[in-house]
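Hi R.,

Here are the chain sequences for the assembly we discussed:
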Amino acid sequence: MRKSELRAGGSIIGLTLVFVLTALLAACGGSDDVTVGELNTQEPTAAGQPVMSTAPLSQLPGSPFIADDTALWYTDFSSIARFDIAARRWTTFKIPAKPGTVDGMSLQLTGTGGVVGVATICDAECDRSTPRHLAVLVIEKKLSLRDIDNRESVSSDSFVAPVGRSGTEVTFRVPDGSRTHMVTVDRDGSINSTIIDEPIAALCATADGYVGAADDPSTGSPLAPRTVVAGKSATDLKAVGVSGDAQALLDSPDGTAVCAGQGLSVVGPGRAYDISVDGSATPVASDVGRPLQRELELGNAVDREGTLWMAATAVNLRRSASGWTAAGTDSGAVTGYATVDGELLRYPSDSKPAAPEPLPTSAPAPKQGP
Amino acid sequence: MTARRARAALAAVFLSCIPTAHLVAPPAPASAYTAKASQLNICGAYCHRPNKSNYRTKWGHDLLVFYVMSENPAPWLVTAQETCGVQSWSVGSTLSSRGYLGRYFPTLGYNTVCQGSFGDSLWAIGPDVGGPGSFQFSASTYDGQVLPDEKRQVGCQQKQNFGFTWFGCVLHTVDTANGDPYAQAAEAAWVTGSTATRIVGGDFNVAPPVNNGWPNSWEADQSLARTALLATMSDTTLENKIDYVFSPTAWFPASVGVTSCSTAAARSSTAQYTDHCYLLSTFSNSL
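And here is the predicted structure of the full complex:
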């Protein structure tokens, strides 16, 4: 046997080993090691052709998404798709987990052109009683999936919510009954995870750290009274006092605590306050003649008449003549990112078309992607 | 004999908070009578977590209200599981226009999606007799966590109308991963079995047969094979039947029908709201 044949044979054996190891890791549904997701890139979408007509994944209700001026990302819980706006090209990354085992996921941008996500992953095909654990996905040029070291168990009622970026770290919260998992992923790849024995109903990243609201589950009230919590780190939050009417509104069933603008806001009929990390509350000025829309915090894909695929925020705040309202997606408040006739838009925005009409209360059946 | 004494003791505890001294004789029932009972697990929290693969775009309590308000004649009893506290209140405020009174039995003091309590509800037409009674099942865990505040239970309310004094009951037994639903179903049969006139609706979390704990009872929906939808809204394949409505054969000698989401269209629309099918059972005394 000649040397070149030996080298070729060695290469084949080596490749086979790599393939087998990769397959074994993938079969584990995410192990303590980093696994690399399969990547596929489509041909560019032609100019004038609706970009969502070439979208590679199903667009399901509940699909998490994120976008900025350069790219749109979304997932069908089996793969993650990225649309490069300048190149008009879709790329998909196969999540290295068994089919049907990714229960939930939230995505956030890293600020360096990539995306980071936290997923709840079932130990077997997901149903209500399947044990779940948390894992972190990172895509820079390739996709990696890494279990959180202690494989924290989470319940089927849990979900992952994005918190935001502070400095070099991106934070997620995972509400889970009367406690909350906090997961922070730093740009250097380090993961910090902790469990807070309180239900954190909202947590916002600000320039000064984190501020949020914790429910008091001891009352059993349909809408629990809330305590404002804050800290330099999302994994080290302390209660802070809020004075006057802002706390009264937090404790009221009429008050909604949300991340809007640059931090925590509490909104109720006729009034709203911004709350800072030290607990000071500032009334939100608003001119009824110029309705102020504030958006955030969770994105979900919503289908509309087959022509508009959009990601609506979970909570949208509006000021109208009748006062402040906080509305979920079902009641028609829509902001965020959208494709209109195939063009990607971000709204509300000064340079973009006005926001679409509110969703019908009876939305059409979900549209499946190609 | 020991078992009989234990059952009597349990039933006494179960019914102890329901005053009976002021019971008046109900008017005589009509010679022919038919009762309907509605049952739906509305998936009030599990189906509405954002960024989840099984996310529903609509709330299950709206589907329940739609069905019940469409029924003519109205069901005597409506039972629902996985209701947030605010949903129970909301449904009750709507159904009150048809003469329903509601009872809410919390099983969790706090649920993240509900931002408050979470549990089972029943609504029944006509005046209540006393307060509600409930019997807490043997221990279970909650999604693998030790949460001692989870209180799986059978909850009942005594009613007086349609010519009868009767009990309406609701339950949601634990799933097999977190406890023994068969044991809890047997406990429910044991406790409620002490009443001769009762309708029990529930999500039993077990496929047929539930067990042999419901003798002399109609399982009106026994012809159904499946009542639970798969977890995802996009896949409306039916899973096993786990929802049931029972009533004594001595009270209702005939079971005359059952309705559930038997067509693909019904499943598809239902799956936008919840992962269970609406169940309507009809009982009659006409053989």
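Residues 66 and 109 of chain A are 7 Å apart (CA to CA). Chain A touches chain B through 50 residues (CB under 8 Å).

Let me know if anything looks off.

Best,
T.
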